Every structure is written in structure tokens, then in C-alpha cells.
UniProtKB/TrEMBL annotation:
Keywords, sorted A to Z: ATP-binding, Cytoplasm, Kinase, Lipid metabolism, Nucleotide-binding, Transferase
Organism lineage: Eukaryota, Metazoa, Ecdysozoa, Arthropoda, Hexapoda
GO molecular function, one term: 1-phosphatidylinositol-5-phosphate 4-kinase activity
Principal EC category: transferase
Name of protein: 1-phosphatidylinositol-5-phosphate 4-kinase
Compositional bias of kind Basic and acidic residues: 283-294
Length: 414
């Protein structure tokens, strides 16, 4: 009788071990990020059980999913015990992710496998930015007013994305959330990163087609990668050297996007331009390879167990703070553009004086030309005179026309 009893107890132990798997933890330096990771994991899992509708209805643009969590104890070292998570328009954003070719499981993995990394970029509004650990997605904090604007924008934006088959330079909005931590409400929107997760950006510009008060501040210039502006761009004589065919394609998309924004009376948007210098990128990759080879040589004398750990370098045991996976692996070899990842990338044309890759997209598209902007225009007109046409605050039609002209000229060169 003792043999079957032993066998049964072993089976019981096995069963218990499977039943009590390790619960997924969401470790982050900020409680807000822990709650965000938990929230994305929960909402994507919940959505996987919801059937995909044939078409979106008006109510889907007002819908939300909401969850209040009390006494959240299993992970109390990493997360607050009480918090709320609200996802806005879940079916709309799921549909947008699909149209932008982003799988929900990949989206969840990028935003929950390791904590998002704070980004030093900050707008005039004081918004905070974070990158997903693999640098594929950007999180931006919003105000409650911006959330309202996003709601009214979304009902026009989604049909436009459908009509354009996802071919746009507008921000790719992928999810919007309200997180309540310690009684304080925080709003976040997730977008696709304009820049590459494996090619370094060597120059960065925020261009509006305006020349009044449009240069980087002294404080900005102290940064490792400052965001330069229109006058800096003009002074440096930058040329977006992509050739006639690519220029025509870019301007067609940009013109359609600007017309869409103009119809909605939106203005003050920018063209975000990132420049990757291929020669410099190759040198950086070579330096990284040499450093890696030196580290491997030093570690050869270590114990077998250490060697085993080294083989796990890109695996799940990587500390939460260190970006890993595709981004870090590929930094050791120079690959150039990867089309499915670098969707905003345009290479310089054959025979260009300098081999470069340009990343081009529209950002900050939610400013409505209302009373406040009209007052700002009046104030600047008084300051600079009515004949100055480089003022950034102007009506949407004028803004869009000047914006397209500036970009077209920038592509042709000076």
C-alpha cells in the first residue's frame, strides 16, 4: 500500500506546483508605472475574450472599461494596495492597433515585461514622456482637457486612418488610460515611437515652418541630443536628400494629413525629424562589438556557472532597468532600416553626399485654433508687427500652407 500512497503524494505535489504558478510581478520605480503595467496586462487579457465587431458604433467612441482594486496584497512591495485603472474606447484602440499592424500580445509584452523608461523630452505643457523598455512605444502624460480633446479627435481620426489604410504621418495612437494612485488621477496615451529602437538618432528637429522665436534655448543645447528648431535647421543648411520619388510620396501623405488637421481647425503641430548618420552608426556598432568581445574575453576565465549566466544575457533574467531583447542585440551589428520596425524611416538617395536615414512624422496635433490661440496671435502681431509671416500662431489654413511649403523647400535643400 505504501507504493501507491507515495505515488499519489508525488502527484499531489506536482498538481499543487502547477496550480500555484509564480504570479507576474510588475516592478517599477514609480507606483504609477507599476499600476500602468498591471493595467495594460489586465485590459489586453480582457479584450482577448471580446469578439471583434464587424464595425465600430458611435457608442464605442464613448465606451470605457473600469476597474477598482482594493487590498492588492500579493505584490505589495511593488504596487499600491488601492488603485483604479480605466481604459478609454478599448475597441476603437484595438482596431487602430490592428490597422497599424501591431499585435495586441506584442503591445502587452513591450509595455509590461519591464518598466517603461523615463525620457528627458518634455513639452511646454510639462508633459512627462516614457519609452517602453524595447523603445518601440512612447507614453505621454495628458491633462484632463487633452483627454477630452482626444475623445473628440478620435471620432474623426479613426475613419481617416481607415480611409488611408493606415498610411499617415499622424501620431499612431494605440491606447489611452486613466490611472488613479493615492487618490490622484493620471492620464496616459500610448503611441508608436517615431524613431528607431536600434539605430541611434544623431540630430533631432522640431519644425513648424515658423521663424519667430524658433531656436533651441541654451538649456536645450546642453542636452546630449537637443531638440533643435526651425532657425537652427536653416542656419545649419540641413538637406533632406531623399530624391524626387520619395519626396513626392512623402509630400502626398503629409499634404493629406495637413488637410485633415486643417478641416478640424487644428494647428501648431510640428514635423519631428530625426537624422541617423550611417557612417557614424557603423562606427558605434563596431565599438560596441569590440567592447562586447573584450568583456567576453575577460569572462572566459570565470566559472562554468558564470558562463551559463552570460548565455542568459538576453533572456528573462535581465534586470528590469536594462533594455534587452531586439534593441540591445542588434546594437552589436549594423543592420540599417528594418521595414517592419522603422516605419517612419526614409533613406537618403543613391549618390547623396552623406549616407543618412531620416525619420519623419507629425507630432502635437491636438491644438485647436480657439479663443486662446487667436489671442496669442494678436499678442504676437502687436509684438512683431502684422507684416511678419513667420509667427507660429496663425489660423489653421495659413499654418498648414506655410508648413507644407517649408517642408517641401527643406527636402529640395537650400
Amino acid at each position: 500500500m505504501s507504493v501507491p500512497t507515495t505515488g499519489l503524494s508525488k502527484l499531489k505535489k506536482k498538481h499543487i506546483r502547477v496550480k500555484h504558478q509564480k504570479v507576474k510581478l510588475f516592478r517599477a520605480n514609480e507606483p504609477l508605472l507599476s499600476v500602468f503595467m498591471w493595467g495594460v496586462n489586465h485590459t489586453i487579457n480582457e479584450l482577448s475574450h471580446v469578439s471583434i465587431p464587424v464595425m465600430l458604433l458611435p457608442d464605442d467612441f464613448r465606451a470605457y472599461s473600469k476597474l477598482k482594486v482594493d487590498n492588492h496584497l500579493f505584490n505589495k512591495e511593488n504596487m499600491p494596495s488601492h488603485f483604479k485603472v480605466k481604459e478609454y474606447c478599448p475597441l476603437v484602440f484595438r482596431n487602430l492597433r490592428e490597422r497599424f499592424g501591431i499585435d495586441d500580445l506584442d503591445y502587452k509584452e513591450s509595455l509590461t515585461r519591464s518598466q517603461p523608461i523615463p525620457d528627458e523630452s518634455s513639452g511646454k505643457s510639462g508633459a512627462k514622456f516614457y519609452q517602453s523598455y524595447d523603445r518601440l512605444f512612447i507614453l505621454k502624460t495628458l491633462t484632463s482637457e487633452e483627454v477630452e480633446r482626444m475623445h473628440s479627435f478620435l471620432k474623426h481620426y479613426h475613419p481617416y486612418i481607415v480611409e488611408r489604410h493606415g498610411k499617415t504621418l499622424l501620431p499612431q495612437y494605440l491606447g489611452m488610460y486613466r490611472l488613479t494612485v493615492d487618490g490622484i488621477e493620471h492620464y496616459l496615451v500610448a503611441t508608436r515611437n517615431v524613431f528607431s529602437n536600434h539605430l541611434n538618432i544623431h540630430k533631432k528637429y522640431d519644425l513648424k515652418g515658423s521663424t519667430v522665436d524658433r531656436e533651441a534655448s541654451e538649456k536645450e543645447l546642453e542636452k546630449e541630443l537637443p531638440t533643435l528648431k526651425d532657425n537652427d535647421f536653416i542656419k545649419q543648411g540641413i538637406r533632406i536628400d531623399i530624391g524626387d520619388a520619395a519626396k513626392e510620396k512623402l509630400l502626398e501623405t503629409l499634404t493629406a494629413d495637413v488637410e485633415f488637421l486643417t478641416k478640424l481647425h487644428l494647428m501648431d503641430y510640428s514635423l519631428l525629424l530625426g537624422v541617423h548618420e550611417c557612417g557614424r552608426g557603423e562606427a558605434e556598432a563596431e565599438a560596441a562589438r569590440q567592447k562586447e568581445a573584450e568583456n567576453d574575453t575577460e569572462n572566459d576565465s570565470e566559472s562554468d556557472s558564470d558562463t551559463d549566466n552570460r548565455h542568459d544575457r538576453w533572456g528573462f533574467n535581465t534586470p528590469p532597468d536594462s533594455p534587452r531583447g531586439f534593441g540591445r542585440q542588434s546594437s552589436l551589428r549594423y543592420e540599417g532600416i528594418i521595414p517592419e520596425l522603422d516605419i517612419y524611416a526614409i533613406p537618403s538617395q543613391e549618390g547623396a553626399p552623406k549616407k543618412e536615414i531620416y525619420f519623419v512624422a507629425l507630432i502635437d496635433v491636438l491644438t485647436h485654433y480657439g479663443v486662446r490661440k487667436q489671442a496669442a496671435k494678436a499678442a504676437k502681431t502687436v509684438k512683431y508687427g502684422s507684416n511678419v509671416d513667420g509667427i507660429s500662431t496663425c489660423d489653421p489654413e495659413q499654418y498648414g500652407k506655410r508648413f507644407i511649403e517649408f517642408v517641401a523647400k527643406a527636402i529640395e535643400g537650400n
